[in-house]
């Protein structure tokens, strides 16, 4: 089966108008002719000859109301499911994008925390060197005082 590609306007006419009612040949003129031709060419709507007007010199066909075909109903159902599927994919894509944005935010927060921890570690190392130097100095001062007390 070949793929049916309708213009947006033809699809809107089929979906909004023909899915709920039929139209007389006079009423069908309210729609753009290229759209109706497209719907007829894909056999999504139909109108049949029901009689011939032989009042003039040439017999003119008298058409029935234009109505949606089973193929047209199937096309609308398939297109509806396709649109639902696309909406669910779009929703899924948006959800994944939000999660990616949250993950990116978390990574940035972790990077800031890591940088802060690195600064704290450097400060702690500097403090530990100062503490070690102070402890060594205190030991040396105690030794010096002890030696001074012993020999002086």
Give structural notes.
The chain is mostly helical and 152 residues long. 67% of the residues lie in helices and 9% in strands. It contains three helices and four strands; from the N terminus they run H-H-E-E-E-E-H. The protein has helices at residues 8-18, 33-41, 70-151, and strands at residues 45-46, 49-53, 60-63, 67-68. The strands form two sheets. It has a two-stranded antiparallel sheet. Strands 2-3 form a two-stranded antiparallel sheet. A hairpin with a 6-residue loop joins strand 2 (49-53) and strand 3 (60-63). The longest helix has 82 residues, at 70-151. It is rod-shaped. The model has no long low-confidence stretch (mean pLDDT 88).
Keywords:
mainly alpha, 152 residues, two-stranded antiparallel sheet
């Amino acid at each position: 089966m070949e793929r049916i590609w309708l213009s947006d306007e033809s699809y809107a006419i089929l979906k909004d108008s023909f899915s709920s009612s039929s139209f007389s040949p006079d009423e069908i003129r309210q729609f753009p002719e290229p759209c109706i031709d497209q719907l007829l060419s894909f056999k999504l709507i139909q109108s049949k000859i029901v009689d011939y007007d032989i009042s003039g010199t040439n017999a003119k066909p008298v058409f029935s109301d234009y109505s949606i075909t089973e193929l047209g109903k199937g096309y609308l159902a398939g297109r509806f499911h396709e649109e639902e599927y696309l909406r669910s994919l779009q929703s899924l894509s948006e959800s994944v994008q939000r999660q990616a944005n949250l993950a990116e935010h978390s990574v940035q927060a972790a990077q800031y925390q890591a940088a802060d921890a690195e600064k704290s570690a450097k400060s702690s190392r500097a403090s530990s060197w100062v503490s070690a130097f102070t402890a060594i100095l205190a030991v040396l001062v105690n030794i010096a005082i002890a030696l001074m007390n012993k020999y002086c």
